[in-house]
Amino acid sequence: MTIAKLSVVIIGAGPVGLAAAAQLVARGETPIVFETPIVFEAGDGVGHSIRECRA
Questions:
Q1: Is the separation of the CB atoms in 21 and 10 below 8 Å?
Q2: First and final CA of the chain: distance in angstroms?
Q3: I need a labelling partner for 22 at 20 to 30 A (CA). Which of 13, 14, 31, 51 fits?
């Protein structure tokens, strides 16, 4: 699965991140939860898409 095909990414697997993931699963979404340090590189402006994701 690539980042481009994900509808929701949750950063952090603490209580709030896992609760958010559970709510999304209950609504039929397929979230992915990142806990380890991940670097996201986005475009230069507000609302731009993620260009690169690396651990």
A1: yes
A2: 15
A3: 51
Rounded Cα distance between 1 and 13, Å, is 19
What burial class does residue 53 get, using C-beta atoms within 10 Å of its C-beta: 0-12 exposed, 13-18 middle, 19+ buried?
middle
β-pairing, 32-34 vs 9-11, is parallel
Beta bridge partners of 54: 39
Distances, alpha carbon 42 to alpha carbons 16, 25, 48, in Å = 24, 26, 6
